[in-house]
Amino acid sequence: MATSFPDGFLWGASTSAYQIEGAVKEDGRGPSIWDTFSHLPGNSLGEDTGDVACDHYHRWPEDVALMRELGIGAYRLSTAWPRILPEGSGKSNAKGLEFYDRLVDAIMAAGIEPWICLYHWDLPQTLEYRGGWQNRDVASWFADYAAVTVRRLGDRVKHWATFNEPNAASVKGYGEGDHAPGIRGRMTALKAVHVMNLAHGLGVAAMRSERADLLLGNIYNFHPREPASEREQDEIAATMLDALWNRSSPDPQIHGTYPEPLAAEIEPLVQPGDPDIIRQKLDYFAFNHYTRTRVRHDPDHPFEVGTLPPPPGTPVTEMGWEIAPDAFRSVMIEAKERYSGDLPIYILENGAAFSDRIDADGRIRDEQRIAYLRGYLGAVQDAIAAGVPVRGYFVWSLLDNFEWALGYSKRFGLVHVDFGTLERRPKDSFHFYSELAHGATFERE
Ligand code: FCB
After folding, report:
1. What is the distance between the alpha carbons of residues 217 and 163, in angstroms, rounded to a whole number?
2. pLDDT digits (tens, 9 = 90+) for 66-83
3. How close are the terminal C-alpha atoms of the chain, in Å?
4. What pTM, to 2 d.p., does this model score?
């Protein structure tokens, strides 16, 4: 069935600094928690690190040319805090700011709107030594970093996000410990949740006082969590993980309160005035979405929650993530009902990893990725038809890149990257997406 997206629908692609830039020691960049973490044995698959990644720091002209060819209207990048403020606070690094300055100009010269996310998980290591996201002062330093960056780029960049998936950064980084800085615990995770929320609030206020014409938001991650069985323990676990993963940032940021069943436990961390700092008016509502999971009771997890793989026979991506476009449609509808009201909604990440093969003729026929995108874009159309104001969709990702603890083993790009030679090669999905971005009608499955 041939359909189309609304006029003005924004087609985008997303990446993040640590996952693509490389050049970790160049031009005065300081180390981040991901440099430290990925260099410790056993933390990332194959002992991979972001030292070189896609070498985007040097190859950005080629990457901007690919973006132009792709035909996207917007490109979401993140700035690396340790490139801009190598010590985390204090003196800024002229060369770091110049890099983003040039990049932003080049993206705009290609007719593409740059969207910036300030925190995609690469906290300056110096700040981790001072307690990292356990330390409330880090929230104020984040606001200083936001102000410095906006002062330099805010004349051209209009869309800003404070955090990418603060839930993942706090739960995986300070709760489960499989992401940097590798801390496992329950109170540590809750403290990180709260301090990141404060940082969001202080960051938004700081950016607004720098410039009145910015459009500000946060990038949540919505991941439906269903109980694995009707056992009470599994239902309790699902409610807990839903609160922790899906609600612990947007609830206080939009409504000013922490969700049950976490509210009482977080309460001692909340100082007078905090809820008003955290709850700021936003200009758009953004989130990432990939999949849904079933949750069971797991006594060994800090929050006594565990997830089950999808039942045998369920379609999954190379991450083992269930392919379930219907869940995506429900998430968009629920986001509007719960949080976004009349705000425009942007999907700032969605996509899939598959093990791509380069055929003898040099082509990468990634039909599974195309099928995934078709299904999920169909869900976007369904949500729009149901009255959800989804104004744009950004695919994850432009390039294959460093997939955190999974290193280079999982490829999400529309463009294949050979991590030996760093050669870029557009996949069939690149051409599929490019046609949509250039206004072609959309063939639903
Ligand atoms: C998201 C992250 C992004 C990437 C994708 C696959 O949670 O924001 O950096 O790792 O998952």
Report:
1. 8
2. 999 999 999 999 999 999
3. 7
4. 0.98
